[in-house]
């Protein structure tokens, strides 16, 4: 079986390791590792995929992942990578988010029979006694050293609250707690977590005299410089009610040619020989690699059946043959019958359908020839769309070459 560190290095997961050779020796046995996720939203998104895929690779190689829901740390707010303080959330909101995220993690990890573990750090952080915590844990931290951490230096310019300043201590305590109770010897996370991870390693060394390890992932951006997981509509969510499997598939198939090989390595489980073969394809042939990237990524997140539906819908919509029927899997909105009966200007319909962020953007899109109704170009931005455009019970809108929305008519009851 291939060494997990070699797998991570070959696939591009590693930015920094505290002790590479020591960790490789540890990997000869079974490693218990963890990554923390603060439940600050109702869904994970594509930006979370690197750590999730890393945990999945660990499990595939026989190691034991721990997913730490940050029900406790989310009450404080991580300043890492942020230029301003996160909004303070209620415990009820955090707990509700944590329950939703548990369902999403089960698509990537097998939690049966202890193969992976999910815990909530609120279980041990919320009950801490403040004075005892300061005396037993806080005394091991140097304020000067903490302020030298990159995450704190960035925030000091804009203002760092005292509550956020405690975050490093809490995350370090998490690592020590997991070592103590689960023999967890590896924490992984984004490179902005390096200072927090090292703090946990140092705290455990001081308290237990034991060596534990840290590994960070690089910040992944596209070749165009965009942060992973961002589109014209915002974040690409892993929750199908927020980003449908079809939209998720489209996100991946529309990646820049320059990113395909790198993303196949990071976001699929395909063997690296196949990744390199697909990455070497050029010009029109690169479409095959993009289709495989989109299918494999969608299958991991949403299951094989949804991936097949998304792939088939994509082939139908982007075929050069005339479109006979719009697939059910594409994004669909319900629109009041009376508004279509009375007629609505095309640019307003495009905005209401979510294809444009504003009416002015919709006017520009249509004016530049990028708007289509039922695959026919729109003549003017204020062209009236009415019941005459209905095909069966829907109207198909298209923005540019790649974005579709099916407008279904909601009849009065």
The CATH topology assignment of the largest domain is Rossmann fold
Structural class: alpha/beta
**Strand fraction:** 5-15%
Q: Compute the separation of the termini in Å.
A: 62 Å
CATH class category of the largest domain: Alpha Beta
Mean pLDDT rating: 85
| Major β-sheet annotation | 6 strands, mixed
| Count of structural domains | 3
CATH superfamily of the largest domain: HUPs
Return residue spans where pLDDT drops below 50 for at least 5 consecutive residues: none
Strand order of the largest sheet: 1-6-5-2-3-4
C-alpha Rg (nearest Å): 25 Å
Search tags:
single chain; 413 residues; alpha/beta; 6-stranded mixed beta sheet; elongated; Rossmann fold; Structural Genomics Hypothetical 15.5 Kd Protein In mrcA-pckA Intergenic Region, Chain A; Tyrosyl-Transfer RNA Synthetase
Question: Would you write up a description of this structure?
Answer:
By secondary structure, the chain is of the alpha/beta class. The protein folds into three domains: 4-217, HUPs (Rossmann fold, 3-Layer(aba) Sandwich), CATH 3.40.50; 230-317, Tyrosyl-Transfer RNA Synthetase; 332-410, Structural Genomics Hypothetical 15.5 Kd Protein In mrcA-pckA Intergenic Region, Chain A (Roll). It contains 19 helices and 15 strands. It has a six-stranded mixed sheet with strand order 1-6-5-2-3-4, with helices on both faces. Strands 9-15-14-11-12 form a five-stranded mixed sheet. A two-stranded antiparallel sheet has the order 7-8. Strand 2 (32-37), helix 3 (49-60) and strand 3 (64-69) form a beta-alpha-beta unit. Helix 12 (245-253) packs across helix 16 (304-317), helix 13 (260-267) runs antiparallel to helix 14 (272-279) and helix 15 (286-302) runs antiparallel to helix 16 (304-317). The radius of gyration is 25 Å and the shape is elongated. It starts with a helix and ends with a strand.
């Amino acid at each position: 079986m291939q060494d997990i560190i070699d797998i991570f290095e070959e696939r591009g997961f590693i930015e920094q390791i505290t002790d590479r050779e020591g960790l490789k020796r540890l990997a000869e046995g079974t490693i218990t590792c963890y990554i923390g996720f603060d439940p600050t939203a109702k869904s994970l998104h594509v930006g979370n995929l690197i750590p999730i895929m890393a945990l999945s690779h660990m499990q595939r190689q026989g190691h034991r992942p721990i997913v730490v829901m940050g029900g406790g740390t989310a009450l404080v707010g991580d300043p890492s990578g942020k230029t301003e303080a996160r909004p303070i959330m209620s415990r009820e909101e955090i707990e509700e988010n944590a329950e939703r995220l548990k369902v999403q993690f089960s698509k990537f990890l097998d939690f049966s029979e202890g193969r992976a573990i999910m815990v909530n750090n609120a279980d041990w952080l919320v009950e801490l006694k403040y004075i005892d915590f300061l005396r037993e844990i806080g005394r091991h931290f140097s304020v000067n050293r903490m302020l030298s951490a990159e995450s704190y230096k960035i925030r000091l310019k804009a203002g760092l609250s005292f509550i956020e300043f405690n975050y490093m201590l809490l995350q370090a305590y998490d690592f020590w707690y997991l070592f103590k109770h689960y023999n967890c010897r590896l924490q992984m996370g984004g490179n902005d977590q390096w200072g927090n991870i090292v703090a946990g390693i140092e705290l455990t060394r001081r308290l237990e005299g034991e060596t534990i390890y840290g590994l960070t992932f690089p910040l992944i951006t596209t070749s165009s410089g965009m942060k992973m997981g961002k589109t014209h509509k915002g974040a690409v969510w892993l929750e199908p009610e927020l980003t449908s499997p079809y939209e998720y598939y489209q996100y991946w198939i529309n990646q820049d040619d320059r990113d395909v090989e790198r993303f196949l390595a990071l976001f699929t489980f395909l063997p690296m020989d196949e990744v390199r073969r697909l990455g070497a394809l050029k010009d029109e042939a690169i479409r095959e690699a993009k289709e495989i990237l989109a299918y494999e990524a969608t299958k991991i997140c949403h299951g094989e059946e949804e991936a097949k539906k998304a792939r088939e819908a994509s082939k139908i919509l982007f075929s050069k043959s005339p479109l006979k029927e719009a697939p059910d899997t594409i994004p669909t909105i319900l629109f009041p019958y009376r508004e279509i009966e009375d007629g609505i200007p095309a640019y307003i319909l495009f905005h209401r359908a979510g294809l444009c962020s504003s009416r002015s953007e919709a006017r520009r899109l249509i004016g530049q020839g990028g708007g289509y109704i039922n695959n026919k170009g729109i003549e003017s931005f204020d062209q009236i769309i009415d019941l005459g455009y209905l095909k069966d019970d829907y109207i198909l809108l298209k923005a540019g070459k790649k974005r579709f929305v099916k407008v279904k008519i909601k009849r009065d009851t």
